[in-house]
Structures are given as structure tokens and as C-alpha cells.
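Friendly challenge for the regulars: who can give me the C-alpha cells for this chain first? No prize, just bragging rights.
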Amino acid sequence: MIDTLVVIGTDGLIYAAWLFLIALGLSLIYGVLRVLNIAHGSFYALGAYTAASLIGLYGRRDLWPYGVYLMIPLAALAVGVVVGPLVERGILRWMYSREPVYQLLATYALFLIFEDLTKLVWGVDPIYAYAPYTLLGEVSIGDITYPGYSLLLVGTAVVVGILVSVFIRRTRTGRIIVAMIEDPEMSMALGINVPRMSVLAFSMGTVLAGLGGAMTAPMIAVMPGMGAEVIVLAFAVVVLGGLGSLEGAAVGALLIGLLRAAAVHLFPVLELFVIYLVMALVLILRPRGLWGRMEVRRL
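First reply, four minutes later:
Bragging rights claimed.
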């Protein structure tokens, strides 16, 4: 029984780390810009495709083998720097003053466009980039052996969560973003460049989505449709934890990760059912999510 609990806890933590990396960017964008960004799944997929391509290019050269891990953050940055400003300035800035349904439709249209764009660029065949996954070998936890890459995933999620929290709460730019969240009109009157801060926040969210995809690429076959699979789970995390809350994203990811792991090991047929059941119960009992407040709590 204790072994089963250890396995559930470890599997749940690994799955939660993966979910947190993806959901953090979604929560950040909502917290700052108040946009429910369905295209977030496309940014995740673009990060995975870009990372797979860079890892493949790196692997074809006789270079330091561990340098392949640099391709992961590089892919995330490339997606965030190129796609983030284009989408925010080109599409979303025209949507901020409109009803949320228009924002949903616009980001859903972007999601469909990016899905077709990835097929045009990378084709429909799966792409494999296993080098970072196999290079770290395996690690034993009790009687169970886990890939070393899974522990790297957990460590990355912890470090990224801390860095984002420190940036938002301890840096001047982060405090400006918080001020803009609280009162954008007053912030603009005080001379804060709100459009520039909006681009920065959206690009950060895009980088985080790309990082989630780039970290995932070595673990799976990268193929069309992977963005659609993850966006629903990412929304479940941020809704469960509380929209726009960094702490809520962490709590939501951990709760879903543990529930899924318990279902997989004890009642496999309930793997997805238990996630959405708990989300529905939380929304009924606490519509703002576990970490939500009466006054909207944002990053």
C-alpha cells in the first residue's frame, strides 16, 4: 500500500509539473490582459515543433551532447519573441474593449490557423526528438525506476514558477504590470506605457507555453493535434485554481496531477472523468476557483 502511495505521489508530481508549465502562461495572460487564450495550445505545439527541429539539427552535428538541452529554452524564446508580439499587436489589441465572446472567437480562429500552419511547415508525419530524454538515463525511487528527464521536468517547473513569481513581485517591471492590472487607466495617466507592458506580458505567456511544448517534445511523438489535447487540461488547471492566479495554477496542477495518478493506478477507466468531476464540483461550490477571491486576484 505504501509503495502504491509513493508511486501515485511521484507520478502525480511529474504530471503536475508538466501541467503547471503549460497552465502558468495561460494564467499569466488572463491575469494581465483578461483574455481567455485558446491559441495557447497552438503556442505549446509550436514550441514542441520548434524544439524537435532544433534538437534534430543539433544532433546531426558532432557537438557536445549535453548542449542539446539548450535547444529547449531556445525554442521557447523563439516562439515567444516571434509569435507573441505578432499576435498581441496584430489581433488581440483590437479585442480588449470587446465582449469576451469575441476574444474567444478570435483566439479560436488563431488556434485553427496555427494548426494548419504547423501542417504546412512540418507536415503531418510524427517528428521524434528523443535525445534529451534518453541522455539523462534512469533514476530509482524505491523499487520504481523513472526517467531522469522526468525529474528535470519537475525541477524546471519549480524554477520557472519561482522566477515568474520573483519577476512579478520583486522587479520594477513586474510591479508596473501589477499596477496596470489594478487600474490600467490610472497607470496610463501616470505615464506607464500600457501597450508595451501588454506585449511583454503576452510574450511571456507565449514563451511559457512554448517552454511547455519544448519540454514535452522529447517525451512524445510531435504531431498535429497535440495543441488541442493540452488546452482543455490547461483550462481545467487555471479554472480549478482560480483564473489569473499564479498560486492557483500551482495548486490546480498539483491537485489534477495527484487525482489523475490515483485514478490511473486504482481506477484506470476514471482517468479523465475524475479530473472534470472535481473541476465541476469546485466550480459549483466555489465558482472563482480554489485560489480565487471576491476581488479578482491576478498575478
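The longest helix spans residues 2-33. The chain has twelve helices and two strands. Your move, everyone else.
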